[in-house]
Design brief:
By secondary structure, this protein is α/β, with parallel strands linked by helices. It has 2 domains: 121 residues, ATPase, nucleotide binding domain (Nucleotidyltransferase, domain 5); 142 residues, Nucleotidyltransferase, domain 5 (2-Layer Sandwich), CATH 3.30.420.40. The chain has 8 helices and 10 strands. A 5-stranded mixed β-sheet has the order 3-2-1-4-5, with helices on both faces. Strands 8-7-6-9-10 form a 5-stranded mixed β-sheet. The chain is globular and about 60 Å long. The C terminus is likely disordered.
């Protein structure tokens, strides 16, 4: 059996991305066009603008991905694209383009779930990785603990009941005047402060998360005292936010006795634990 060459296309939010992957694990090219600088002005991603930007660059991004892999479009065996979850308009651009491309090439089209794609990217980073394992997914829209039972079978053990952790970081950063994207800015400023401010931590018995209370506490503190030390505020917020992740994942490991844990975040994945807690 020969190699299988897949063209993957991603447009779920504010990045237009295309990649050529061989046999599911070897990345031959990966092109990403980011819209961060465009959305900074608005303090977050504007869906209509994101969709328009995808439309403007998607053909160039895909063409460059094929070229950098040293291939022609005729070498592609499968076209894959993100079908959700994500921004509806942004997804529509990628799906529509992928449909047209697969039809013109006479190649099959495969729709990929955004979250399953995050999980599967670990197989590229760590070629020896195989299910079963636990996966902690943290992004602007999702905070999940998933039991990956096989390559195609998943069980959500816990998820956010309100705000995702990434959303909380972005909103806190916007309120205290740091701008977008919030995660890197809060992390950088927190290094200049100390976690000396007492903040609430959601007390949920199962493996679910909740970040709305923590976010609201920060917002209220800043509104009542605009001169509060922002470095200390960021340090305290980040400490509590990440402690909630650690506590839940330790509980999940204890309950499932699974000895492999991977982390999926915005645009990269990392193997972070192997062994007992």
């Amino acid at each position: 059996m020969g190699d299988t060459i897949v063209l993957g296309i991603e447009t779920s939010c504010d990045e237009t991305s295309a990649s050529i992957v061989k046999n599911g694990r070897e990345v031959l090219s990966n092109i990403v066009n980011s819209q961060i600088d465009i959305h900074k002005t608005y303090g977050g991603v504007v869906p209509e603008i994101a969709s328009r930007c995808h439309t403007e660059v998607i053909n160039q991004v895909v063409t460059l991905a094929v070229s950098e892999a040293g291939m022609d479009f005729s070498d592609i065996d499968v076209v894959a694209c993100t079908y959700g979850p994500g921004l509806v308009g942004a997804l529509l651009v990628g799906v529509s383009y992928s449909k047209g491309l697969s039809y013109s090439l006479g190649k099959p089209l495969v729709g990929v779930n955004h979250i399953e794609g995050h999980i599967a990217s670990n197989y590229i980073t760590y070629m020896e990785l195989e299910p079963p394992f636990l996966c902690l997914i943290i992004s602007g829209g999702h905070t999940h603990i998933v039991h990956v039972k096989s390559y195609t079978e998943f069980e959500i053990l816990g998820k956010t009941r309100d705000d995702a952790i990434g959303e909380a970081f972005d909103k806190v950063a916007r309120v205290i005047g740091l701008g977008y994207p919030g995660g890197p800015k809060i992390d950088a400023l927190s290094k200049e402060g100390t976690p000396c401010i007492v903040l609430p931590k959601a007390n949920i018995d199962n493996l679910d998360f909740s970040y709305s209370g923590l976010k609201t506490a920060i917002v209220n503190l800043h509104h009542k005292n605009p001169d509060i030390d922002k470095a200390d505020l960021c340090s305290s917020f980040q400490k509590v936010a990440t402690e909630m992740l650690v506590e839940k994942i330790e509980k999940a490991i204890s309950e499932t006795n699974l000895q492999k844990l991977v982390l999926c975040r915005w645009s990269s994945c990392k193997f972070i634990y192997k062994g007992r807690v």
